[in-house]
Structure formats: C-alpha cells, structure tokens
Specification:
This is HAT C-terminal dimerisation domain-containing protein. By secondary structure, this protein is mostly helical. It is 63% helix and 0% strand.
C-alpha cells in the first residue's frame, strides 16, 4: 500500500531471512535431512551425558565443541554438521576406544545406534557431499551478517556465483547439484531478483568492468525501474538514462587512471561520489542505491529476546524475573557485539546461553522426551533393524519428506525397541553400501 501511494519507496526483502529460508528448504532434501537427523542423534547422546562429553573433549577433540553457531537457527545446523565432519576422526576413535566399549552407554540402544552411525563410512561421505553443496550459500550468509560493508551492491552477484560454485564442486553432475539449484531458484526468482538488487549489481564498478560481466535483461529492467521510481523529474530521468552509456564505456571521469585503479578498492557508493561528478543525475541515483544494506540481521536477535526467554520450557516465571532476564541477556548481546568488533571475527562464540539454546535446541534436547512424563527406563520391546544401516541414496526432485516431528517421534521409538549388537571389528563393512561409496567419491582421507 505504501509503494502504491509513494512510488519512490521500495519494499526490499531481508537477505538474511531469504538465505535462511534457502537453508531451511535445503534441509528438506532427502540426503540432507538424513544427515541432519543422524547428526542430531550423535550430539544429543554426547551432550546429554556429562561423562561422555568430558571424554570427547578431553581425549578426542582437544577441548573443542561439536556444536557451532552461525547467526540463524538453520545456519547453525549446517555449521554443526561441518563441525561434526571436521571431528570425524576423533569421534570414530572415541567410539572404538576401550573406555567407550566398557561403558554402560555402549550397551544402550541409543548408544549402539549412534556408534553405528559414527563408524559408517557412507554417512561421512554423505556429510561431505552436503557440506560442499551448502558451503557456498553459507559463505554468502556470513558475508551479509558480518556487517562490514553495505551488502546491497554485492548480494545479487554473490548468490549468482554461489549457484555455479555448487555446480562446480559437484563435478557438473546434475543429479548432485540440481536439488540445491531448484531451492535457490525458487527463492531467487521471487526475492533476490528485486529491482534494487539488480540495479546495485549493474552500478557496482567492481562487477561492471569485469571481462565476464553480462547485463542480463532482468538487470537492465531493474535499473530502468529504479531510475523511474527514484527520480520524479522526467528531464532528469532522461539525463540519467543517457549517462548510462558514459558509465558503460568508462568515459569522462569514469575512465581516469584513479577511477580505474579504485574500482575494487573503494566502496561502490564512495567510488560514485568521487568519480561520477560528470554524470550528476545518474550519480545521485547510484549513491542512493549503493548506500543501502539489505539485511536486518543486526537487530533481529534484540527483537526476539522476549520470545527466546519466554518459551514453553520457561513459561511460569514471574514478570520481575522475566524483566531481569531480558535485561541481562540484552546486555550480554551488546557485550558480544563489542567483542566481535574488537576481534573482527563474526564467527566468535556467543556468550549468551539463551541465544545458543535458541539456535541449537534441536541438537541438544528432545522436545518429546522433555514433555513426556514416561520414564524411558521402563520401555521394553523386540529387536528390529537399526535405521542407520539403511544408507541407500535417493536424490529426490523436490519431493522430500518432512523433517518436522521426526526427531520427536523417532527418538522415543528407538528407546522402546532393541537394536543389534555392534561388531566393533567389522562395523564398517556391515553398514557401507558399495554403490553409495562409489557414488559419493569425495576424498575423506584422514
């Protein structure tokens, strides 16, 4: 309604939100969903047993955590998958150690299942495939969330190049990269192909003057729409349109030695302010567009502190205590922001345990078991095949089964039934599928 009333206003989607939605849909791809589900079983077992957590950190991971945060909930899930893959050698050593074999946890159904997952080579090959397919999008998210520069001039190019990076790392095999491409395209067409994003890409000198730059039709349309909507005067619109030719061919001040040498060094808006002086009408529009950010990530966590604290698990606290908690955690996040600015590391560990719980709750706690009054020690049942043995590869074309609720129902069911004993000497041979190993030919040399 505002856009219709005031034509010079643009509604722009939050890039962080859009990328997070892409990651959410990645998790619905069958192979990714399987890795997430099995990875969560590993972390839930380890992080709910103090003895096992201490054993892992003291002897097998050099004090490092498996859990890793990355700003948003879905990004944190993929960051944790990456961490699991990085620590696969230590995890395999732990589950083959005498301390684990002699512990009571190795004899539980949950322990046997997790052991089979960790010792299964195919599982780690799938993890490697997921990691290399998701990493390009994760890098874009990290760049947007860092807040080090205005993200508007870069987001379109970053997403475009991330798509082709996914294709390249998968050897141009459409069976491997197409499930991820379809997810990206479903969001890019409706969100990232925004006129401001397209115009910012065209007006960014670090991209425009590259040899491989291609002015796609949608990019030109986006630029034209921005000129029409941001410049109300018709004569100045015409002047700005005519000045595009000077910018394209690097004429006048655009082609000076200083302008050429600073195309990639200066921020795009600053470059236009300094070298666009011969094209005043186009300069005015370019500076307005290139000075924008495209993410509200820096404010998102502050808005949601109340929702994160006042959750289902903490819904009976008094108003005074709730206010005190919000005050403390709000200041913790201010402190965290200060620490990150000093260290210049956007990946530094969060000091706010409420934020960590919010981002990684699915990797630590089982909501079904939390809300159940049934004592899990009273469960009994018959033996059935361990689900981790089923490692067939099924790359779907978008018809992925839903992950929602599977952890809640499956974990409680696994406690109710037995599972086959683990043969530590022959575990890998028993669980690896030869066709899977040939298909996932990623190098996992240790």
């Amino acid at each position: 309604m505002l856009e219709e009333k005031r034509r010079n206003l643009f509604w722009t989607p939050c890039a962080t939100y859009c990328i997070n939605r892409i990651l959410e849909d990645f998790m619905k791809i069958r192979c990714v969903e399987e890795c997430i589900e099995k990875g969560q079983k590993i972390t839930k077992l380890i992080y709910n047993q103090i003895w096992l957590l201490n054993l892992m950190k003291n002897e097998f991971t050099e004090g490092q955590e498996l859990l890793n945060t990355a700003g948003t909930q879905y990004a944190s899930s993929f960051a944790t998958l990456r961490s699991l893959l990085d620590h696969r050698v230590g995890l395999r050593r732990m589950f083959l150690s005498n301390k684990w074999i002699s512990s009571r946890f190795s004899r539980t159904n949950e322990g046997k299942e997790v052991e089979k997952i960790v010792l299964n080579v195919t599982f780690w090959k799938k993890m490697q495939y997921v990691r290399k397919s998701v990493d390009p999008i994760m890098h874009v998210l990290q760049k947007v969330c860092s807040g080090e520069s205005f993200s508007m001039p870069y987001i379109y190019n970053d997403i475009y190049r991330a798509k082709f990076a996914i294709k390249s790392v998968n050897g141009d095999d459409p069976r491997k990269y197409e499930p991820f491409w379809k997810v990206i395209d479903s969001h890019c067409n409706s969100l990232f192909c925004h006129p401001l994003y397209l115009a910012a890409y065209f007006l960014n000198p670090s991209y425009r003057y590259r040899q491989d730059f291609v002015a796609h039709s949608e990019v030109v349309r986006g630029l034209n729409e921005c000129i029409v909507r941001l410049e109300p005067d018709n004569m100045r619109r015409i002047s700005a349109s005519m000045q595009i030719a000077h910018y394209n061919s690097a004429q006048d001040d655009f082609g000076t030695e200083l302008a050429i040498s600073t195309r990639t060094d200066l921020e795009p808006a600053a470059w236009w302010q300094q070298h666009g002086i011969s094209c005043i009408e186009l300069q005015r529009i370019a500076v307005r567009i290139l000075s924008q950010t495209c993410s509200s990530f820096a404010r998102e966590h502050e808005w949601s502190i109340y929702d994160q604290i006042y959750s289902k698990s903490q819904n009976r606290i008094t108003q005074k205590k709730l206010n005190d908690l919000i005050y403390v955690h709000y200041n913790l996040r201010l402190r965290e922001s200060q620490l990150r600015k000093r260290s210049r590391d956007s990946r530094s560990t969060s000091v706010d345990n409420v934020l960590l719980e919010h981002l990684l709750k699915d990797w630590i706690t089982d909501t079904y078991l939390q809300s159940s009054d049934v004592d899990k020690n009273n469960f009994s049942g018959v033996e059935q095949d361990d689900p981790s043995e089923n490692d067939s590869i099924d790359f779907d074309d978008g018809a992925a089964r839903s992950l929602k609720g599977s952890l809640e129902l499956e974990t409680i069911a696994d406690l109710a039934v037995g599972s086959p004993d683990v043969d530590h000497a022959n575990n890998n041979a028993a669980t690896d599928n030869d066709s899977d190993l040939n298909y996932f030919d990623d190098d996992l040399s240790e």
